[in-house]
Design brief:
Layout lengths: L19 E11 L4 E9 L5 E10 L6 E5 L11 E7 L6 E7 L6 E7 L1 E7 L6 E5 L3 E2 L6 E2 L6 E5 L4 E2 L4 E2 L6 E12 L2 E6 L2 E5 L2
Antiparallel strand pairs: 1-2, 2-3, 4-17, 5-6, 6-12, 7-10, 7-11, 7-15, 8-9, 13-14, 15-16, 15-17
């Protein structure tokens, strides 16, 4: 959602209400049907104020991500999958990374880079790195624990995405690739592995 985006006020499926998004006033939580409610300020096509409205935002409409590579099967027998949840919008800044299919009760760390790359084996790991360019490690949290569910998550602050030299503020149109490194075992011996990699393009 960006300033100037049209809003379907009467719910007829057409943007014919001369109503356009201006800014978010309040952002609510996710509902069971995978939507989020928000109070937004609206404006007319001529820029004049139209007032406030409660709108429903579809989850999938704001998650422009694509799989870069699959993870290598781990000690569970399957591969760890990464997904993007929420609203990766420069205006709303409400998104998170989530990985499932991980071994239980193990540790890992999220990291990212500027571009996808060919699957590349890592030393002392059975995983494949699918990110090209300098890597930035997440600091919040610096380490994640999968617990009994074999899952891990990290909030995405689009104004402070880690890089190799610090942080960067992502703007609409910017793309980053993310992956999770985690402890694993192969043939009873300890090793490490990587989740699949996912690209995220900010709206």
């Amino acid at each position: 959602a960006q300033t100037g985006d049209p809003i379907d006020l009467d719910g007829n499926g057409f943007f014919d209400d001369d109503a356009f998004f201006k800014r978010v006033v309040f952002l609510g939580g996710w509902t069971e049907d995978d939507r989020i409610h928000a109070v937004v300020e609206l404006q007319r096509g001529d820029g004049s104020n139209l007032g406030l409205a409660v709108v429903r935002i579809l989850h999938f409409a704001f998650s422009p991500c694509a799989l870069v590579c699959d993870g290598v099967p781990n000690s569970t027998g399957g591969a760890a999958r990464m997904r993007v949840h929420g609203l990766p919008s420069a205006v709303l800044n409400e998104a998170a990374l989530h990985v499932d299919g991980l071994p239980q009760n193990t540790f890992g760390l999220f990291f990212g880079g500027p571009a996808p790359g060919p699957p590349t084996p890592l030393v002392n790991s059975i995983g494949l790195l699918c990110i090209s360019g300098p890597l930035g490690r997440f600091q919040n949290p610096p380490v994640v624990f999968t617990g009994p569910t074999g899952e891990a998550s990290a909030e995405l602050d689009l104004t402070r995405i880690p890089t190799a030299t610090g942080f960067t503020d992502l703007q609409a149109g910017d793309t980053r690739v993310f992956q999770l490194w985690y402890r694993d075992s192969a043939g009873g011996s300890p090793t490490s592995n990587l989740s699949g990699a996912t690209t995220l393009t900010v709206r």
